[in-house]
Amino acid sequence: MCETKTKDNVFVNIVVSVQYVPAQDETSYYNAFYKLSQPDSQMRAYVFDVVRSCVPQQLLDNVFELKDEIATTIKSALSESMGSFGFQIVEALVTDIQPDSKVKMAMNEINAASRLRVAAQEKAEAEKLVIVKAAEADAESKYLAGLGIARQRQAIVSGLKESVSNFSAQVSGTSAQQVMDMMILTQYFDMLREVGTKGQGSTMLLQQSPSTMSDVARQIRSGFLVREAEASVPSLVN
Predict the structure, then answer these.
(1) Alpha helices by DSSP H, the chain
(2) How far is C-alpha 18 from the geometric centre of its chain's CA atoms?
(3) For the whole model, what pTM was predicted?
(4) Is residue 86 within 8 Å of 23, Cβ to Cβ?
(5) What span, in angstroms and rounded, lies between the C-alpha atoms of 154 and 181?
(6) In what order do the strands lie in the sheet with 87-99?
(7) Tell me, what's the pLDDT at 236?
């Protein structure tokens, strides 16, 4: 295990494993046995030297990404230096990179905060989409309801016009005004029947006399005349 510092001043422990064997010849066997009394210590010194020269050039995040390159550099340096002592380097591996526990905690918190921010943005976009779609659906619903009401009123007006024309043509001596009064009276009786059958037990006191019928018809005619007069007045533009 070798302790060193990264380019962004973070101390880390680099764990390196080296696999080596004596080269397969008599000279290498002789050199491996007699030239070095402690080959492990010599290799450890070379490994530390390579690690402490490579890691300080990299940021902490890059050290994790480049650990294979660091291992290749260590193997190349050891093969060159230990080959003269009769050793063959089989493999060099960076098995672990251990920054300080507080640094690891900070890195995890940064990652968690970034993911929470992305999650919040996605949630906000989803809520926005739901609100927009609901507003579009409500607008479309009101538009279609308006079309339905307009067509319903158009059908009612067409039916009334046809009924008045047919009644006036078949019953001589009646005017369109009389037919309308009779239809208003019929609608008034239909309304009373609906209130009585679907009023859920409510009690309504209504004035009931022939004069009331004519008064209802007069009020409705007056309402129509006022609306027609308002519609005929041109709007003033400042």
Answers:
(1) 26-34, 39-54, 60-65, 67-82, 101-170, 176-198, 210-232
(2) 50
(3) 0.45
(4) yes
(5) 20
(6) 2-5, 11-22, 87-99
(7) 47
Q: Are 208 and 222 in contact (CB under 8 A)?
A: no
Contact 62, 69 (CB under 8 A): no
- Tokens 């010194």, residue located: 45
| Cα 88 to Cα 82: distance, rounded to the nearest angstrom | 7
Residues in the chain with pLDDT values less than 50: 236-238
Q: How far apart are CA 137 and CA 167, in angstroms?
A: 44
- What is the model's pLDDT at position 21? 83
Contact 62, 55 (CB under 8 A): no
Which residue bears the tokens 């024309």? 165
pLDDT tens-digit readout, 16-58: 888 888 887 777 777 777 777 778 888 888 888 888 888 888 8
Query: CB–CB of 4/14 below 8 Å?
Result: yes
Written as six digits, the tokens of 221 are 């005619």
Closest alpha carbon to 67 in 95, 45, 48, 43: 95
Phi, psi (degrees; rounded to nearest 5) at 96:
-160, 145
Mapped onto helix, strand or coil, the DSSP state of residue 114 is helix
Q: What pLDDT shows up at residue 203?
A: 64
Residues 68, 71, 75, 81, CA torsion sign: positive
Contact indicator for 65, 16 with CB cutoff of 8 Å: no
Give the Cα separation of 99 and 13 in Å (integer).
6
Separation between Cα atoms, residue 153 and residue 160, nearest integer Å: 10
